[in-house]
Structure formats: C-alpha cells, structure tokens
Design a protein that fits this description.
The chain is globular. A hairpin with a 2-residue loop joins strand 16 and strand 17. The protein is mainly beta. The strands form 27 sheets. It has a six-stranded mixed sheet with strand order 1-9-8-3-6-5, with no helix packed on it. Among the domains are: 5-102, Immunoglobulin-like (Sandwich), CATH 2.60.40.10; 119-448, Integrin alpha, N-terminal (Methylamine Dehydrogenase, Chain H), CATH 2.130.10.130; 464-565, Immunoglobulin-like (Sandwich), CATH 2.60.40; 583-668, no CATH class; 706-808, Immunoglobulin-like, CATH 2.60.40.10; 1174-1275, Immunoglobulin-like (Sandwich), CATH 2.60.40.10. The protein contains no helices and 99 strands.
Amino acid sequence: SIENQSTFLTRPLSIPFQITDTEGGYMQISVSSSLHSLVSPESIYFTGPNITTDGQVYAIQATSSIPEYITMVIQPNSDEIGSSVITITVDTAQVSFVYSVLSLFSEDDRSVFPGVRGSSVAFGDYDNDGDLDILLTGVTNSIEIAKVYRNTDGIFTEDTNISLPGISNGSVAFGDYDNDNDLDILLAGNGFSKIFKNTDGTFSEDTNINLPGVYESSVAFGDIDNDGDLDILLTGGISAIIRNIDGNFNEATDIQLPNVNESSVAFGDMDNDGDLDIIVTGGSVNQFTSRIYRNTDGLFTEDTEINLYDVAYSSAAFGDIDNDQDLDLIITGYPYTTEIARIYRNINGILIIDNSVNLYGAGAPSSEFGDYDNDGDLDLLISGILESSTYIRLYQNIDDAFNAVANINLPAVNFCSTKFGDYDNDGDLDIFITGASDSGYIAKLYRNNLNIPNTPPTAPGNLNATVSNNNILLSWSASSDAETFSATGLNYNLRIGSTPGACDILSPMSLPLSHGYRLMPARGMIQNLTATINNLSDGTYYWSVQAIDTAFAGSEFSATSSFVIGPTEKHFTFTPPSTNYYMFFYGDVFTINGLSAEPGDEIAVFDQQGTICGHYVLSNADGFVITVYGDDSTSGKDEGATYYEYLIFKIWDASLEIETTLNDSMFIQKSAFGAPQIETIPPQYEGNLEIRGMGIAATNTNLVPELSQIENQHTIIDSSISIPFQLTDTQSGSLQISVSSSLTVLVMPENIYFTGTNITSDGTHYTIHVTASEPENITMIVQPISGQSGESMITITIDNGAIVEKAFAFTVLSPFTENTNITLPGVENSATAFGDYDNDGDLDILIAGSTDNGDIAKVFQNTAGHFTEVTSINLSGVSSGSAIFGDYDNDNDLDILLTGSDLTKLYQNVDGHFTEDLDNSLPELSNSSLALGDYDSDGDLDLFMSGDSFVRISKLYQNTDGIFYTDNTHSLTPVSNSSVEFGDYDCDGDLDLLVSDYSSESTMLYKNINGIYHDEFILSNTAKFGDFDNDNDLDMFMYMTRDDLPAFLYVTDFIYNTEGAYSFGGPFSFNNSIQIYSIAFGDYDNDGDLDMLLTGNIGETATIYRNENGIFQADSNISLIGVKYGTSIFGDYDNDGDLDILLTGQSLSGPIAKVYQNNLNTPNTAPSSPTGLTANVVGYDVHLSWSAASDAETISSSGLNYNLYIGSTPGGTDILSPMALPLSNGYRLLPARGHIQTLTTTIKNLTVGTYYWGVQAIDTAFKGSEFSTGYSFTVMP
C-alpha cells in the first residue's frame, strides 16, 4: 500500500513502493488521476532497475517472489492546489492513495485564537517542554487582552492559570531576566510596563521592579553592558534603557535617546565590536526618526554617519542577509507620507541603502527575517498598509536578491504582528499572523508545507577563556551547517553557570543539557567567535556555546569548559615531594557515581599511612593523568607510596562538594617505581571511580625525544612571555617535562608553565601524552619575578627514560633601555624634534641647544636605526628656543624653523637639502617658542611665534603661497619662556591656540571664532593638549605653582574637556619638589590611550606615567636619567611599532642627549582607512567628511584623529600637505597627532578647479593608516 501523499505548488514528489509477484515475468504498469487539472497521468513517471518504457507505456520484468523497487515521480500542474486520487494498476492489481498539492503555507485551524488588532505576539517555550508556545496581545471585540497559549503536539490551548493585564498598540517580549533558564514576560503599553516572573510555568508580577509607563510602545531585551543579564530597551512616549543589576532594574540616565512612540526598536552588534548597538525608529511631536546608536562600554552615542529613512508606525529588524557575519537592516513604515520598505547593507559597520532591492512599502507594518525555505539565507516577510490597502508579501532570498513569492495563501493585515517559528517541530519555519485583515481581526497559524529538512549546525569547538581581572574573553572555533553555505552566516549563543550544567550566570534561553533546543525562534546575539562578560565575582564558572542557523535551529551545546575568576582553592592539599621516584596512572574515563566527571573534580591518592602521594584536578572531560610519588628511603621521610603497598583513592565532586573514599585499592608491584620497562595494571574500580587503560609510563627503552630549537628570548619587567616549541617522540606514551632556571631571583621554576592539547599537570609537575612520531605543539609561559631584570639560562628537560635537554637565554629588560650605540651631542636649554626629512620611511632627529662648545642646531640622519650627523646641512645654533619640522610650502617634505639666541631662521627642504629662505622676514627672538598650524583653514601651515625681541611678543603669521605675513587682527598677550600649541579643543573644525607663559605663570587658551582668536584664561605655569579619555576632544594637563603652599611646592592637574568646557579632574601623584619643564604625550605601551613623560626645571627628573583607564601612575619599572632644562619627545625611530624616547637636558653629570629604545614589543597595528568620503562645495569653500576608522588597540574610534591631503592632480599634495607618504602606506613624517579631531573639516578660499583628496586616521601611538581611496571635488566659478 501507499500512504496518502502531499507536496506543494509546482514541487515534484518521489514516492517509493514495491511490487512482488509469485510467478514473475513481464507486467504492464498504468496510472490514473481523478483530477487531471491538478495532475495528469502524463505527468507521472516510474523508474527502477527493471522498468522499461516507450515513452507512454511502462513495463517491469519481475523475478518470481523477489520484490521489485520502483519510484513514482509526480509533477503537479503549475499554480493549482487540491487533491486527486492516484490509482496504480499492475496487470489486474490496483492500489490507490490521495495526492494533495498544498500552497506553500496552509492555515492550521486546529488551534483557535481570538482575532486581534494593534497586536504584539511572541513565540517562546515558556514551559520548557521542547515546543514553542505563544504570547498574544491586542484588542478583540473592544477588549484588550494578553494571553498565553500552551503548545501540546502542535495544538494550542489558552493557559487559563496565567493572568496578565491586557494591552493593545503595545509590545511584548519573552526573556530570561533572572537567569533561571525559563522565559519571563515583559509587557509594555496602555500606560504601564511590567515584568512577570516565570516560576515552573506560572507567571507572577515582579512588584520589586518599577518601569516607566508607556503608550504605543516597543520593547527589546538585550545585555548592553556584557554582564550576563538582560537589560531593557523601552519606548512609547519616552525612550529609555533600563539596566539590570542582579535582577534590579534602574533607568540609565546617562544615556540619552529621542522620545518616540509608534515605534520599533532592536538590539544588534552592528559594528562587531562585541557589544549590542540599537536602532530606534518612531514618531515624536512633529518629527519622525530612525537612528542607530553605537554602544561603547555600555554608553550609547548616535552614529551620525548613517542616514536612514525617518519613519513612524514602523518596524525595524537586524539580520545578516548576505551571510558576511555583520548585521544588515530592514526598515518599514511611514516617512511622513508614502510607505517605504528599505534594505540597508552593512559595509564595514556602516549601513548603506541598497537601491537594487525593490520591496513594497508598508505602513503600520510588521517585518520579520527568517529562512522559511531552509536554503541557508534569510528570507523576509512584510505586512501592513500599502496605498490604503492591506497587503502581505513573502520575499525569497536568492543570492542576496529578494524576489516576491507567488501564491503564498497568507492573509493581508495591518496594525499587525507576524512571527516566524517552528511550532510543529518539523524543521521549517511556520508563521503566526495577527492584525486587521479585510475580513476582520485575525490571529492565525500557518504551517510551512515545504518539508525541506534543516539540520542543526555542528557544535562549536576549541573553547578558550582568557581572564582579565573580573572580566572574561571567551572564544571558540566556527561551527558548520549543511544548509548555510558559509560559516559566517551562523551566529552563537552562550551558557554560563556557577556549577557544571547550570546557567545562573548567563541564561542561553535554550535547553543546553538536551539537544540545545532554542526556547525562542531568534538569532543569537553573538555575530563572531568571541564574547566578553564583565564584572564577574570570584569563583569557578562553567560554560558552553551553541551555533544558530538562519532558520533559528540551535546546535547541541559544545562540551563544557570552565574558567576561574580570582584565587583558586583545591579541596585536597598536596605538595609534591622532592623525590625521583614516581609513576603515572592515566585513563580516558573518569566517572563519579556513574556520571561523567566535570572540570574541577579532583582525584587524590593516599598510601596506607594516609600520606597523600598523588593529586589531579580534572581540567576537561578527555581523560586524566595522576603522578604518584614513591617513598625515597634515603630521605628518612614518608614522602609517598612504597613497594608492596596498597593505594587508596579519594574523589571530590566539586559541584556537590562531596568527598568519597573508594572501596577498592590498588596493589603496587615491586618494580613499579623507577622501572625501566612498561608495566600494565588491569582496569579496576568499576564502582564510583572508573579508570580505563591504566599503565605505568616509566621506560628507558625509547629513543631520545626530539625537542625543537628555542631561540634566546627576552621580555620586560613584570611581563610574562609565551614561547612555542615542539616535541616529537618515536613511541607513543607519556613523558614528564621539567624546567630549571640558573637565576632563581629572576625567574623561579615554579613560575614557568606549560600548556598544550595533550599536556596535563597536577599543579607542579607536567606530563605530555605523545603519539608516535607526531609533533606535539607546546607553549611555555615564563613569568619573571616582579621588579627584577637580568638574564637566566632556562633549561627544559624531557624524560622518557632517556633524558633530553634544551637551554636558552631568557633576558628581562626594563621597558626602556638606552641605545648606547647612538651618540648625540649633549645639550641643555634644548629643543628637539623627530621627523623624516629625507622621506625614506624612518625618523631623523633635529637637535638644538647649548653645549659646552656653544649653541648648536644639527640634523642626524637615521639609517636602519643608527644616527649620523648630516654635515652638509648647516643650521644656525640656537638655545632657549624652539626647533620644529613642518611643511610650510606644501611640497610634502619637512622644512625647518629655528628660534632662540636672538635668531629666527626658516630653512626650506629641497630634495633633502636645506637652504635658508630669505624671502621670509621674521623677528629675531630669544626665550622663544614656535608652532605651525592652519588656523585660517586655507590648506597651508600658518605660524605662531612668541619670545623676546627687544620686547615680548606673541604674533600670528598667515601663510600665503609660502610667504608669512603678519596677521594683526588678533589681540594676543605678549609672552616669553613659553610653550605654544595649536589644537581644536571645541571640536568646531578650526584650530584654537594654547599658550603657556613660564614667566607670568599663566596659560592663555585662545578660541578660534571664524579665524579670529578670543582669549579664555587659565591660571597655570604649563599646559598641554591631549585626549586622555579617548572621547574625541582635547583635554589638558596643567602644572602650576601655588602661593598658598610652601615654597617649591607645585601642583599638577588633569583638566577634562566635556563638549568644549573644561573641568578639573583632580591632582595626580607627582614629586612636588620638582618643577615641570617638558611634557610629552604618547601611547608607549600600545594599549590605545595616551601616556605621559615629564621632565624637570628645578630638580632633575624624567618619569613616565602610565594611563590606566584615565588614571595616571608612575611606571616604577622604567628608569630614565633625570634632566632639567631639556625636552623629551616620543617617536618610533626603529620602526618596530612602539614609541621610543629622545631625552635631552642638564643631568647631574652634565648636558645629555640620549635615545631610549622601547623593549615592550607590544604590537601596534595601524588604524583602518577612513571610508564614506563626501565633499560639499559652497562657493569657494569645501566641507569634507568621512566615516570613522577603527583600530585594534584603541578601544573607541573616538580616540583616533585624522590627517588630510589635497592636491591639484590625483595623488598630489600641493594644496594641503599631509606630512605623510600618501601613495605608499601612509607613513607619518612626524610622530604627532592629527589636527583634525572629528570626522569633518572645512578648507576655505580655494580657487576654481578640480581637487583630489584623501584622509588617514592616526592612533595614540601616532601610527597612520593607509590613506583612503582618493576622491575629488570641483570648485566652480
């Protein structure tokens, strides 16, 4: 017989069956159909090994009593649905069955729901029984409802034990806010917002939680601060983020969002930085909005570079439509008049409208992503109002193009809510549709008839956890999926618990201990292969991860792994004895009371006298090795087991905190300890502890293992180092690894650790399990003793009965050491600069000051990190002045300006040779200072000068075609003995001016308003710009004397910039008997923020202060020679990616000039190139803008700044020189920040013509990105 069959529109169906005949022979097969309009007999085919046909008649040659296997293929007529009786006739025998052709989706009328409008619905398995239930809200028959319907074998009935307040035009969400792995409910609308706690499938309001009341609302759960619990995004007359702190919710008043209703909100990690960003759409008074807010450390800022249609009565959803592992966006709604539906593609974190996708617009809509056809990409369902009519469309995603699917048989609705979910657990997404249809209010289920199988993804592997204080970075390897073409189309979901298998720290909203069934049909919130959880308490945590495909099917969870926050304690206390007698017990199964042991469980081995002689803490479920120590009779101590002694095993169940002593014991044979051969002990302990394949791994019959060469290594004080190497042995087995150090005051053997796939340890001794002739990859981690430097010989010993050793020199350096191979003239009252004057890709040195032989100014050329004086460059010597590099003539090489000693000289660079520019006449100065900056925004460097020229002066000089003209439009206070600096402190796109006067102990901050400077006054001796907190504006470090304090007591302070207003950040620790002379900022440790180097005036000092989260502390591991009356500057002279130091001034031993090499070797990658370049020409001015770059070391892109080039030809720099190499890798000729703090700048007073431009990003270590793709603009007459 053949069971009744079904297929869907146009889809052929194959039906296998058998024929058996007792006589055998030749038989004809014919077929009929009762409904030819659905399927005609000519569209039915038979295939099989013994089937023949002439194209019309089928026959089979059967063998007596042997079944013949036949397949019937039925092709229905296109665009027809219905049922037909198919009859097969073989000779005189017949069989019939009903063949049905279904639409793609058909209504499941077994479940009855009240029709609703103004609805919000959610699928979720609230009772944890493995199928999706339904939460339904809206208005029906003028009554507002909120009901839960329980799913039993695909049929839904109202759970009348659950009482919820009704809402309409509101929003609902399932989510596990209390991390007990059942779904709680959030209801918002009708003037309230409430959370209902799920306790064993019943719901009660959590009256301890007070949320703001809302109307016409939208809500979403998401963990904005990566602390493992769900926060809330809530709109409806307001917009608020409600933070969850241990189950208590408080509004985040530090986050400002536009107040909207008729809204839609969603969480998603749009920029793939590991935290959830948000989209907010909706209407407020006379204004519609659609905004993306980026999450930076739990704070949200609007991404003004992303332009979206502003909509209300809207729907927005994130989804990765092109499977490239970033989130794209669908927005539907009303932008004031006509309905729209727009897809925005994510290109490097920027959402760009895709005009190639044509979708019907929708107002009062619902839009949902889901893979209904199980082909591994997201399809799209949109419903709502289009041109005053209701409609619904299902769009199939085929190669990233969305095509409307015909004949879907779904009702059109508006003021609606639709959801994808596999309610019947048949592996494809069904649809629940609610809203106002043309026939009234509805709420109906539609079953997916495709019956295309969807297999869940494979479980992720290679779990790794990196602990940093109370934060954890988790990572894993990618899963795979049969239907998802690329693994980048998958996303991920975590579970974290305080005990094995628990999820009380982070609920996965899945069933991790079964097959990973997802309680909610939704994507995982983790787009990539890492996740960070913050602010965990001390303790041991157990975690696993699952993958989720485009049809929201979850993989099984990975094997459980664990990590420890804070100090760890073991149940059994064991200190390995100093004995050479030991053996190994190893096994591949460790069970406790019949259950697999979990990481953290312990095995301890005791001898008959109760002395512990072996201990092992399980780190994974893949097996174990116990090192059991034997008693050394020569020591006179009972240090372990002896021959002919029984061993007692005890186990500790860490999760249950139960210690068990096993009933069985093990007899140690005479030759066990130190035996030169392998001995096997039969499997024992079939009760509580089960050990398989035990053996003694002590032998000298093996060949000597081969250990790879290890080069000499170095690190810096207090920094560990990881050293990879390989071990290969000719035989399989277990080898012991030990290590020694020749200088234990530098590094102790106890502080050397080994890790690897097959490495095990009892906490003191390491064992590796090798496979014959296969290299084992091992990593040795060496942690030097705190505060120590020097060199030790480290020796690794491998023992398999034969001994092999490998030694190398391990050197611990100070973070900075003087490069004694570099000789520079000692100077005081000095001025120095790094700059690549010869454009060869490394930093040269300009040095000026007073020596024992008079004043000098010299250039030293850098050749592969060695400096030699360029004697062909003749500069006038100066001291107590300024020496700077800068490209004042826009030919993209560095010119030189010198002042001091009653001189001012300007030297023009022509192909690396300097000649004095006699066309410029500048005042001769002493006690002087210079700064170059384009204060009038015309594309060339202007000049500020201060100092003594018979009288004190402070003057600005405007650059016009390389000639400096005095600009007398400014009222500037004359100063000398000063420091000067340009910087855009108010982020308005032009350069302000900071002038510090040592003589008057004051600092003037001049604000640039349309090219005219207006003063703002700050009491201080010395001040310097720097963005300490990476918030995209310039803060200041200030130093002052205090008349109300004892003599020679000085005060330092950080002054923080908040939207152009300065406020004191509080003093920091500094030797207040020393007056500051020089301040330098730079990121010497490549952690993405500015550190500080200070030198003295009264009293010799040179101290580096490290910036740790905005707090500056002296780095006690760095020893620099103290100086006064000198300068200190940062620059990467050896091109190894970290900032070195040039230090000059008067030391206790006389004038010096020394280069200190940075030994940190912390890699610094260049920022990404800016993108999204635009130019807006207004008259003869151009407003340039671009999107933010990103940087691996700089946590926030707001910590970056920018640098432009503009040329009159492609690649040219004759209009605005970048002082970088734009046509190569963007190498910076000067180690300095860019003068552009924001993502826009204006260049003024251009002449008519076409201009070509590009932009680069600069990080806190002054490393420049490659320049962006070149763009052009035209200034018209």
